[in-house]
Amino acid sequence: MGSSVIEKITARAIRASKRIILPESHDSRVLKAAQEITRLGYARVILLGARQRLEADAVRLGVCLAGVEILDPADDSARETYVERLYQLRKAKGMTREQAAKLLGVPVYYGAQVVANGLADGMVAGSMCPTADTIRSSLWSVGTAPGCRTVSSCSLMQTIISEIGVDGALIFADTGVVPEPTTEQLADIAVHAGQCCRDLLEVEPRVAMLSFSTKGSAHGPMVQAVIDATKLAQAKRPDMKIDGELQADAAIIPEIATAKVRPGTSEVAGRANVLVFPNLSVGNICYKLVERLGRAIALGPLLLGLAKPINDLSRGCSVEDIVLIAAITAVQADAAAGSDK
Asked: pTM for this one?
């Protein structure tokens, strides 16, 4: 990878030694990733599934599962506790106990309950299931973080331009979840993306609320929505540097910020390390273009706003993607544990 930021994250993951559950053990990529995560020491891996099948699959793939914990839901004494918890949570919406038990037969839902029960510090899923299931399983287990009503996502972008962001790394949000955020949702996205920057990049976040306008250079409902969200985010976290509306170049290039923003009025312009997009179309398109045309490393989308770290994978993910997302999840779990002290 050749990234100092990623090297720092993986070193922190090794020190944290967190337990990360990978529920989709029927995916050969997950088994290979479990071996690699364990070899590198990024986390203590829990695989979900029947031991006999997993061991047979490992032999077939030439994978060593030494040091990997295997949790079989069929033999798990906590299974009925999870069924009851899910039933109690969803019965007002019409879910029966039998439906709860059936749903927990889906690995991502069972894995999320293991995290909620404190037997794993975080979960990485999505190589075989849609994002909607990863998010729903999270909401029906660990729930949202205190004071948060929005689950969103971000991508950690490691670019080749070392002078921007943090040694070339930036947080892009939202890149995967909320299509058309309301003012409150966009403010939540900004705050939680900023916290993700602090947790992963270990720097003070400088959050830019992006628009096609910089400080009144254009007007209209789309610009006003960003201005309103900026004010709300600033009110939610007055301790965090959040500013907008800013065009992308004014957010990250000091010389352009000097030309477009009145000197001394912004602590973010030209120095942003978090870019918050006005909607999902913009965020998703931008991160893919930066990844493919700008030769950046894109990690994520990472889920934001949950009470415990659960992260989603693309169904086209590689083994290396799973390994690195597991390391990031371990670091997030360690940061969350530190903030609770």
From this structure: 0.92
